[in-house]
Amino acid sequence: MPSNKLPYTTRLATTIGVSLWILALVFAVLPVWPYIYYRLSPNASERLASTIAYTVTSKGLPINESSSAVTTPSLSLFTPLPKLDPSLPEKNGLIIYKIGVKGEINEGSDWQSILKKGIWRVPNFSTPNLTSPNRPVILAAHRWGYIDWSPAFRKLNSFINLPQLKVGDKVTIIWEQRQYEYTIYSTVTGTHVSDYNANLILYTCQLWNSPVRIFIYANRSN
Question: Please, what is the end-to-end C-alpha distance for the chain in angstroms?
C-alpha cells in the first residue's frame, strides 16, 4: 500500500522554503513596525514624547523651572564664537550630514507641541554661544515621529538614524547665524544622561516602548 508521507528531501525543502518566507516577512515588516504600532496605538507618540521630555529633566532641572535659574557664565568662560555669517539661515538649526538631518531647533517648555515639530532644545541647559560647567546643549527628537509626518519631513527632523552615528562623526548647529561644529566622542545607550561635561548631547528612544535611550556626546571642534 503506497505511503502518503512525503519524501524526507521534499519535507526538508518545504521547511526551508517556509522558514525563508517567514524571515523575509519579518525583515520586511521590521522597518515599518513602529508606524504600524503607532497606527494601532494612536496615543503612542504622545506617551513617548513624555518619556523623551523627562529623560534629562528628571535627572537635571524641571522643565518648568524659570530660565533665570540657569547661571550665565562670565566672559572668562566663553569660548570664542564662530564668525557671524549673514548668509546663514536666521532660524536656528541642526545639521547632521551623515544621517540626513537638517531641521529647525525648536524652543520652549511645551514639549507636547514642540516634539511634534521635530527637534527640541531641552530648556534650562546651554545654548551654543554659551559655555558653562555641566550645562551642555541638549537636543532631543522622536525616533519615528508621528503618523502624519511625511517621509521627507521625518528624515530631516527626526532622530530615526541616530544609531548610525559613530565616534569621530561631525554635527553642525547653526545658531544666531554662526556655525558651530561638534565632534562626537561617545555613543551609548541607557536610561539617563551619564556625562553632563559634553558640550552637546543628542538623544532619542532606542525602541518604541522601551525606557532605553540612545545618547550621543560631542564637543566643540571649531
Answer: 85
Q: The domain 43-220: what is its CATH number?
A: 2.40.260.10
Which H/E stretch holds residue 178? strand 178-190
Question: What's the DSSP call for residue 29?
Answer: H
Distance of CA 128 to the CA centre of its chain: 18
- E strands, the chain, are 93-96, 101-106, 119-121, 137-140, 170-175, 178-190, 200-205, 213-220
DSSP state of 169: -
Please work out, in degrees rounded to the nearest 5, the angle formed at the alpha carbon of residue 88 by the alpha carbons of 86 and 91.
105
pLDDT tens-digit readout, 49-83:
666 777 875 444 434 433 333 333 333 355 789 99
Nine-digit cell at 112?
Answer: 507636547
Pick the closest to residue 138 from 97, 101, 182, 177 (CA basis): 182
pTM of the model: 0.74
Contact yes or no for 153/166 (Cβ under 8 A): no
The residues spanned by each domain of the chain are: 9-40, 43-220
Structural contact between residues 213 and 206, judged by C-beta atoms closer than 8 angstroms: yes
**Model confidence at 30: pLDDT above 60:** no
Beta bridge partners of 172: 95, 181
Residue pair 64/109 in contact by the 8 Å Cβ criterion = yes
- Nearest to 216, CA basis, from 189, 192, 191: 189
